[in-house]
Design brief:
- The protein has helices spanning 42-60, 87-95, 99-116, 132-146, 218-230, 247-259, 298-303, 308-316, 328-346, 362-373, 378-390, 396-410, 419-422, 433-448, 452-463, and strands at 7-10, 15-18, 26-31, 64-71, 77-79, 83-86, 124-127, 147-150, 153-156, 191-196, 214-216, 234-240, 272-278, 281-282, 324-325, 468-469, 479-480.
- It has 15 helices and 17 strands.
- Strand 5 (77-79) and strand 6 form a beta hairpin.
- The longest helix has 19 residues, at 42-60.
- It is 40% helix and 15% strand.
- The strands form 6 sheets. A 5-stranded parallel β-sheet has the order 7-4-3-12-13, with helices on both faces.
- With 481 residues, it is α/β, with parallel strands linked by helices.
């Protein structure tokens, strides 16, 4: 059932490669987490759905998984390319709040979204400010051979390691046009690993270091936390495709320096054997940006009556390396697809779980394993789960076991979900679910005695409250808001 070799696309080598763990039987994974200065938008959350499916797949293939996701609560500047103010310091100043309170609030909001999307908890949530001493020690270890000091802080010389920028395929200075111009930098791509607090200023988050009082650079944080918790080299590093251009190349350079490694012809010299990146979620109206005001965060979808697992399913419908276009119609279609799956799974709710080796499911399980082993081909795996739900004239216990096994990889929680769970009341709805159910019961009574005038009046009354009565709905859903 899990005999197909797991192959993953390595962004560093730009090719599919068989997964070959550093430690036999184990899988050690680091995922770049959020900078907790604002709520995450749904494009941010696609990265964690992808990383979750990767982790679940590694479990399916029998590996002992150690997954780390970091929380950046210091050091990430307003421009990802190493320029501007610290995002947390800026948010705290704008809201006149403690930076620690800002970080705590948005970390909790992110964790709420993680739970809503049925993303599993990692082995470690690594909080950047818990590792400041380790960051200073790491910087000291590489400073003499790879860094130089400027009035603004300690800078990493990218020419001091071989193959800088190979991950991004950056071979000219033109590729680093977004990086901050700082007087005295030896090369345009050089980046700060420690930033001094400017004279006369005081940050809410700052620490003493050999290079003056200040704060670590964003790139330094991930190198330190991944190395501390997983050891160099570890197996897989994940993140959004936007990290592939600057953040991850800078991490790799630091990892090479710290581990005293040579050419990236050996991918393990990068700190991780495999680098994986999910593509963008595209939204044509521009509401994916946090500067857009009511940007697209998961809570907005919920407020409009869409269950968060419909968004998870929407992510699964596209391969993680493909762009995914968001639209409300597309989300509605994903919700309808999820409803169909939940209806089919509800019929298995009371069945005792049976054996996985039923002959009717052998081919489906083999094809499912082939799909998910082929660089996490979730669109194909999803259709195979639907095929399993559609199998007729088979022991319900065996069917339940197969559905549970497949869904453990895709993470839709089908056997724990009901129709009622999927019917969310939009935030602005002027009617309660109890009122709708009561009205529909009266309508059924009226139709039973052929009192169609009363039936139509109740339907019109509900329509005035934005409740659509779905007569003849093949899903049997009966109504929607």
């Amino acid at each position: 059932m899990t005999d197909h070799p797991l192959t993953l696309f390595n962004s560093l080598t730009r090719r599919l490669e068989p997964f070959d763990p550093v430690h036999p039987g184990e899988a050690r994974v680091y995922s770049c987490g959020p900078t907790v200065y604002n709520y995450p938008h749904i494009g941010n959350m696609r990265a964690y759905v992808f990383a979750d499916v990767l982790g679940r797949t590694l479990d399916w293939k029998g590996y002992r998984l150690t997954h780390v996701i970091n929380i950046t609560d210091v050091g990430h500047l307003t421009d990802d390319a190493d320029a501007g103010e610290d995002k947390l310091e800026k948010a705290a100043a704008e809201k006149a709040q403690s930076i620690w309170d800002i970080a705590r609030h948005y970390t909790e909001a992110y964790w709420t979204d993680i739970r809503a999307l049925n993303i599993r908890q990692p082995a470690h949530w690594s909080i950047a400010t818990d590792y400041i001493e380790a960051m200073i020690a790491f910087a000291q270890e590489i400073a003499d051979a790879h860094c130089y000091e400027l009035p603004g802080g300690l800078y990493f010389d990218v020419t001091s390691v071989p193959d800088y920028g190979r991950l991004a395929r950056a071979s000219t200075d033109e590729g680093e046009g977004r990086i901050e111009a700082v007087e005295g930098k030896r090369h345009p791509a050089d980046f700060a690993i420690w930033r001094k607090t400017p004279a006369g200023e005081k940050r809410q988050m700052e620490w003493d270091s050999p290079w003056g009082r200040g704060a670590p650079g964003w790139h330094l944080e991930c190198s330190v936390m991944s190395g501390k918790l997983l050891g160099f080299p570890f197996d897989i590093h994940t993140g959004g495709i936007d990290h592939r251009e600057i953040h991850h190349p800078n991490e790799i350079a630091q990892n090479q320096a710290f581990s005293r490694c040579g050419s990236l012809d050996n991918p393990a010299h990068s700190g991780a054997r495999v680098w994986m990146h999910n593509n963008f979620l595209v939204e044509r109206s521009g509401k994916m940006s946090k500067s857009a005001g009511e940007f697209l965060r998961l809570q907005l979808l919920i407020d409009k009556g869409y269950h968060p697992l419909a968004y998870r399913l929407m992510c699964l419908q596209a391969h993680y390396r493909s762009e995914l276009e968001f639209s409300w119609d597309g989300l509605g279609a994903a919700l309808t697809r999820l409803k169909r799956m939940v209806i089919a799974a509800e019929r298995l709710a009371d069945a005792p779980e049976g054996a996985l080796d039923h002959p009717k499911f052998a081919d489906l399980l083999d094809r499912f394993d082939a799909a998910i082993s082929d660089d996490l081909n979730s669109p194909v795996a999803l259709t195979l789960l639907e095929d399993a739900l559609a199998v007729k004239k088979v022991d319900a216990g065996a069917k339940r076991a197969v559905v549970a096994r497949m869904d453990a990889v895709l993470g839709l929680g089908l056997l724990d979900c009901t129709r009622a769970d999927l019917r969310l009341r939009p935030k602005g709805a002027a009617v309660t679910e109890a009122e709708i159910v009561s009205a529909l019961a009266r309508r059924r009574e009226a139709r039973a005695v052929k009192d169609f005038a009363t039936s139509d009046a109740i339907r019109d009354e509900l329509a005035a409250k934005s409740v659509e009565v779905m007569d003849g709905d093949p899903l049997g859903w009966e109504w929607k808001l």
